[in-house]
Amino acid sequence: MSKVIKLKKGLDLRLVGEAEKTLDKLPLSESYAVCPTEFEGVTPKLLVKVGDKVKAGTPLFFNKYKQEILFSSPVSGEVSAINRGEKRKVLSVVIKADAVQEYENFEIKPLEQSSSEDIKSVLLSSGLWPMIIQRPYGVIADPMDTPKSIFVSGFDSAPLAPDMNFVLTEQLDNLRTGFDVLSKLTSGKVHLSLNAKALGVLDAISNVEKHQFQGPHPAGNVGVQIHHIDPIAKGEMVWTVGIQDLAIIGRLFNTGKVDMTKIVALTGGEVEKPRYVQAIAGAPIADIVGANKPEVRIINGNVLTGKTVAYDGYLGIYNNQITVISDNADYEMLGWAKPFRPKRFSVAKSYFSWLCPRKRYNLDTHMNGGPRAFVVTGLYEQYLPMDIYPLYLLKAILAEDIDKMENLGIYEVVEEDLALCEFVDPSKSEMQEIVRRGINLMIKEN
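Predicted structure:
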């Protein structure tokens, strides 16, 4: 039995709108899209034009600076639009789906006869290589590298996160194959982190090094797990893969086809029926969410790390959750001076709602204050279960002090690791944006 790693720092943000364990299978939508802006550090070069016919698994574009990394279509059909932004930046490639889906066929050797190069060749040609993310920096892994180890988080501790034991019930064979694939890509170990209080279906996986975590969010963040299992030092590298992304990779090696079907949790206080939806990555948000509502914010992901998406937007390739919350901008006069408000949540116990620790809250998008200078309070360290000093790291990033950034742990964090610190921050600083700025500076300097 693996040792339980117990974390005390963090915060479980309890919100209304948790998905009920019922599954709706979304019928094939009219169109799907792949958005290059979703992939950090990628400059897309198109391989298709409007009117081209594609199959599921046909490459749509590649990364200008790593031309072997392809990005493929999730469905078969016709390229109906290529949307661009400022300076002709490619925002999305839209495919009008066929009524009957066709798939590119990839030749797959038996895994026991496959080398690391064979595995990489399949993943690159199929367009599934972008599902492998490198730490440090949180960018798509370089296929020329070999990581010291690979990490997969088998659970998500974010607010209203999907229950992976429910999501992965029918994916055990694909996951076993996926882990066998990962073992070919590293000379080190493949690590799987589990929720100690809800082991479930993933406890049956046997071809990996398993670890159990117990504690509040961000216990489910793979960065926190790496920190406690095999920390990253300067010059070292690990790879990470999302658990549903790994199932898609395993499905490719089991069937020879790119099938990006996944299960997404539709959550949030503004969802009439929170539930699980089976859809193909890149599906229209409107088809998943249903009827549009005024004054709501739709988020691709969870409330801490997700990105706002328009009603006519599309489900992100990496996202396992869609959250819909109120975006009502009503101002409350002297709200800070009214402690008798049980519907309000505060980590600083400004309201008496802290007397009900199991209560769920229907939070909105209000910042409850404006940006101001950093206040040295020691607050952030209470919510980050890693041996780094987030405030001093952020200051080093703002000062562009490379040496201090390295000494203070820039190699160990990406945006999601400081998302909870950003939520509790009285200074209302955009910490995740600052972290990405620091990471981009490190990439440029190195």
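Summary: The first strand starts at residue 4 and ends at 6.
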